[in-house]
Design goal:
Blueprint: H1 10-15, H2 17-20, H3 26-35, E1 37-41, H4 47-57, E2 61-65, H5 90-101, E3 106-110, H6 119-123, E4 128-131, H7 136-149, E5 153-159, E6 162-168, H8 176-179, H9 195-213, E7 222-227, E8 232-237
Parallel strand pairs: 1-2, 1-4, 2-3, 4-5
Antiparallel strand pairs: 5-6, 6-7, 7-8
Length: about 250
Amino acid sequence: MNPKNVSLDPLELERYDRQLRIPGWGVEGQKKLKKAKVIVAGAGGLGCPASLYLAATGVGHLTIIDKETVELSNLNRQVLHWQPDVGKYKADSVATKLQSLNPKIEVEAVKAEITEKSVRNLIKGADIVVDGMDNFTTRFILNFGCVKEKIPFVHAGIYGLDGQMTTIIPKKGPCLQCIFPEKPPELKKFPVAGVTPATLAILEALETIKLIIGLGQPLVGRMLLFDGEALTFSIMEVRRDPNCPVCGKS
């Protein structure tokens, strides 16, 4: 992301002062963030915290995609939806909060379903797609779209007090289909404490920021595993499948 022709005004320099002091970040890194276009797919337990911190950090163009409306049972974990938001579209609820938090960025709410037919049009032009979904059916669709559009895809998933995360950069490491050749079994309503998706979502936001600025080492070819009961993190190596139907032969 070339920050050429992007500038920061005095209020932005003040807003982002503390992060500008991080080695390797600085004004040039902040300009890259301002120029970046990030899609958060899903405005739920993962999407809410991830989008909150991306907005606070100054990602210039955020698109929130979610077709659902807020339910009371969402409020234990989907922290950008509040009691008065029950019944509203999740994408609108999140976009309103993010725009209020940071008027210096652009936030778009897209109330659409991510399908095999719509995915490439929905994500086209994005620099990064962040996984805020709650099912592998849609994750696989996003993975396919990101591979075909050559867009990095930051994946996370959770169950109860456990979670996992990896970063997919097409042609530079395994895609989600390589890692999960068969769709994992899923429950329509699975157990979840709000702190679990929040933990993984913050790491998704960090990884997205790193990718945009060019900081550190991305989680490509590695799966981070979180065990909330033991409060441990571990790393598992994952490999690209040369025969993967999504990324192996294209």
